[in-house]
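Lab channel / #folding
Pinned by the channel admin:
"Please post every new chain as: sequence first, then the structure tokens as a reply. Keep commentary short and put observations after the output so the thread stays searchable."

First post following the new format, from NK:
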Amino acid sequence: MQSTARFLWQRLEPYHGMIYFVPEADQHYTALGLDPGMMGYFGSRSAAMGAVTAPVVVATFFNFNPAIIHAVVPEVWRRTSPEALWSARIAAVDAALQRLLGHRLGHPDIERAADLLRGIVPACHPEGRPLFAGHLAQDWPSEPHLALWFGITLLREYRGDGHIAALTAEGVTGIEALVVHGATGAVPPSVLQRTRAWGDVEWTSAQRSLLAKGWLSPDGTLTANGKAHRDEIERRTDALAAAPWALLSDDDAVWLAALGKELSTTIVAAGTFPGR
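Reply from TO:
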């Protein structure tokens, strides 16, 4: 049975995740002198933590090829500051949501949803959650549609930090996590390999490691043992993310899920995410 934490996260995720794909993002980041693509992505998402070094981004982003992070991150902070990049990210979120959802953002239910998330975020403790902690230090935007995005972002990074902890405890590396994810069929392995900048040699090595563990079959699918391990990681991730969502009443959880589905459906239908 799917947990409430995972269900609500999935319903709300596109409202946050669109910032990684919309053209407004590169427009605002390149205006600061950054190159399009990875430089804006790594810089804008890590900016909440300050001008952190490449190893910190490797640790907190987990499944990207460290070589691309080491090549990109130091240059980001030579060209701009975390404060400027955080402001650019919020401006890009605003522009993209205005384009995608328009007048829908002015409805009172957007403010109600933002207030619900603001009320449950205090249940998220920052210990052991570096990416969440960095975002927690930022001010909540005053506009309801941006406050909603920020609340979803906080809960998303809180969950993500917990997911990395669960993977690490299970002895799974970043690239192995990608291979396992690809083996489920949810996302083509080639897409995961390309977007995280892994070469064929590294990818094949990770596959061999998972074959040796008995998690991966020669045909690239998960074995029963591999599926059991992945299910356990997902269960741990859900448990580590559950505290804030548990504060919602049943009625509020149902209402928020319905709103999230509506908003996410509109965002996805606009062709925001490649391959969807």
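NK: The CA atoms of residues 10 and 260 lie 9 Å apart.
TO: also worth noting, The chain has a mean pLDDT of 96.
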